[in-house]
Amino acid sequence: MLENYKSSVYEKNVERFLSAYAPEIHIYDCWGNWESVGISPWKANVEKWFNGLRADGVSLHVDFNDLVVEENLNLAFVHSAVTFAAHDIESGEKLRQMTNRFTFGLRKVNDSWLITHEHSSLPINLETGKGLFNLR
To answer: SnoaL-like domain spans which residues (predicted)?
Structure first.
């Protein structure tokens, strides 16, 4: 599932990216909306994200760090620091990067893991109220 996440973001492949998510996905995202419920609104968010990357002329490299996976036969819990690094498609130069925290709740369906809950977050600077990027 994590390799699919990484490669489909890099390739900006919306359908393959969404194939890892359950139709009833419930997401708490640190960008824009408080939450997203169901695959249709999540698809709209992902399309906007990938189209923005195309417009900027960047490829996005994803790395999962400090990965913790707990699973049983049908449920899994994954948390990690996730770094997103944008590279210029033409030159390969790294333009920017950010790291935030992710938690995934997964359920096994027909021998495949599907994400049923995703939560991304950033710590907040209490003096400024702004998210703290790149603490790792």
So the answer is: 3-124
Please indicate, yes or no, if residue 132 is contained in any of the structural domains. Answer: no
3-state secondary structure of 52: helix
Contact 48, 33 (CB under 8 A): no
Q: Residues near 113 by Cβ (< 8 Å), separated by ≥ 6?
A: 1, 20, 76, 106, 107
Query: Could you report the per-residue pLDDT of 69-126, keeping only the tens digit for each?
Result: 999 999 999 999 999 999 999 999 999 999 989 999 999 999 999 999 999 998 888 9
pTM, two decimals, is 0.89
**Closest to 48 measured CA to CA, from 20, 25, 24, 29:** 29
Residue 130, phi then psi, degrees to nearest 5 = -100, 150
Two tokens, residue 17:
């990216």
Domain residues for the domain of 28 are: 2-121
Within-domain flag for 56: yes
